[in-house]
Design goal:
Blueprint: H1 4-12, H2 21-25, H3 32-40, H4 44-51, H5 58-64, H6 86-99, E1 115-119, H7 123-134, E2 138-142, H8 151-154, H9 163-174, E3 179-181, H10 192-198, E4 201-204, E5 210-211, E6 224-226, H11 227-232, E7 243-247, H12 251-262, E8 267-272, H13 283-291, E9 295-298, E10 300-306, E11 313-323, E12 330-334, E13 340-343, E14 346-349, E15 353-354, H14 357-360, E16 386-388, H15 401-419
Parallel strand pairs: 1-2, 1-4, 2-3, 4-16, 6-14, 7-8, 7-14, 8-9
Antiparallel strand pairs: 5-15, 10-11, 11-12, 11-13
Helix pairs in contact: 1-3, 1-6, 3-4, 3-6, 4-6, 5-6, 7-15, 12-13
Length: 421
């Protein structure tokens, strides 16, 4: 962890510009220039309190957010040098808050008689719960696992995010007066119908962690594994001396590939259909994966997985990148005749995730064609008493912890309006 002298130096590098593009680049809209200005003066507790107006996860977001694509990617310093290291400053403040037991909220809370049930204890659910509790709502989180945190625990490997830090952050949130019921799964232990009878509003935030498919031959072979499931279920495979292929270019693909190397895979290839510059993964995660021995096949598509009963090889095709009308990104187009085959023992799908259709379709709510719960601008589902957010919904942005937290915070504001608070 960076020491205090380095943090002050990094904070003083900030120009505190009036336009504050860093705040616009932050999904949570944190007052970045404001908390950095306080860090310059070593007023860390004040900086933490300022952060808590918009986020309850600073210690975590400071560690794992794709800063180069968000706040730091909007910093004006980047035009003539390096951007301000916003993530490191935020993480340092968040760490101090945990070490010194600074509370998220010091204002007196006036309890109301309103009750809200939150289904799912990941970043969206935790954030929604926190902001509701601060406003006096009686909040109960229902979580299917025997722990809170969601993807913060089972979606991000320990080598990238210290789970003690996650647990301490969650403890601070629960201390706001939130009730927690673990091992309670929607559709099994609890039903939406019963929840509606006992609560004034419900917020669904149980995530979407079913891996996406490429719709190619061979996807049903033994040895094809979902990247999300591999991380969430902590799957152990006989990887020694094996060749593993990871399809995808986001942080999940990086986490899967680095975990595979740690579990003993002899060769790990990441296959991505666009160029390295277009990879959605954080730059640092890509560089760390390379450093740890992961090989990258950029501008490649997997067109077939070969094998009789289990994976034996994959067929690849190279791509050209072309500009198409009404598309800001270069689109990959397969190069005819460039096919070739490489040996493989496992293929991991890390090309996005979907909601569990068997669950979402059983709730009686309006869904889109992917099984995501449709919500309006007020985070309301087709049932006015039920709100939803995060990856399982049609929230406008998903895929990162910060956007999930933003979804939860927005939902809390709309739930408060619905309850007349």
């Amino acid at each position: 962890m960076t020491n205090e002298n380095e943090i002050v130096k990094k904070a003083k590098y900030c120009l505190n510009c009036s336009t504050k593009p860093c705040s616009s680049g932050c999904p949570l809209g944190n007052d970045t220039a404001g908390f950095i200005a306080l860090a310059k003066e070593q007023k860390y507790e004040e900086a933490y309190k300022l952060l808590c107006k918009t986020t309850v996860l600073p210690a975590l977001c400071g560690k794992i957010c794709p800063h180069s694509k968000q706040c730091q990617g909007s910093c004006v310093r980047r035009f003539k040098g390096e951007p301000v290291e916003i993530g490191e400053i935020e993480a340092y403040i968040g760490k101090l808050a945990i070490e010194n037991n600074w509370s998220i909220n010091d204002e007196p809370i006036t309890k109301s008689n309103k009750k809200v049930a939150i289904i799912g204890g990941g970043p969206a659910g935790l954030t929604c719960a926190a902001f509701l509790a601060i406003h006096g709502i009686n909040v109960t989180i229902y979580e299917k696992h025997n722990y809170l945190g969601g993807l913060l625990v089972h979606g991000i490997p320990d080598f990238r995010l210290d789970k003690n830090l996650v647990n301490k952050t969650i403890e601070k949130i629960i201390k706001l007066g939130i009730e927690v019921k673990l091992n309670q799964e929607l559709g099994k232990n609890i039903s939406l119908k019963n929840l509606k009878e006992n609560y004034d509003a419900i917020y669904l935030s149980f995530g979407a962690n079913i891996h996406g498919n490429m719709n190619i031959d061979g996807e049903n072979l033994d040895g094809v594994v979902g990247g999300n499931e591999y991380l969430e279920q902590n799957i152990t495979l006989p990887l020694s001396g094996k060749i593993a292929i990871v399809s995808g270019g986001g942080n999940v693909a990086m986490d899967v590939s680095r975990t595979l190397k740690r579990q003993g895979a002899e060769k790990v290839y990441v296959v991505y259909r666009r160029s390295e510059n277009e990879m959605p993964a954080e730059r640092k995660e890509i560089e760390d994966a390379k450093f740890e021995g992961v090989d990258f096949l950029f501008q490649h598509n997997i067109v077939q997985i070969n094998g009789k009963d289990k994976v034996e090889s994959i067929e690849l095709i190279k791509t050209n990148l072309v500009q198409k009308e009404c598309d800001s990104r270069l689109s990959p187009v397969n190069i005819e005749g460039s096919n070739y085959t490489i040996l493989a023992d496992y293929v991991f799908m890390a090309i996005g995730s979907n909601a569990e259709k068997s669950l979402t379709s059983s709730l009686g709510l309006e869904l889109n064609k992917y099984g995501n719960i449709i919500i309006n601008e007020n985070c309301e589902t087709s049932d006015p008493k039920v709100f939803a957010g995060g990856d399982l919904s049609t929230f406008k942005k998903t895929g990162t912890v910060a956007w999930a937290a933003r979804s939860g915070r927005e939902a809390s504001e709309h739930i408060l309006n619905y309850l007349g608070i």
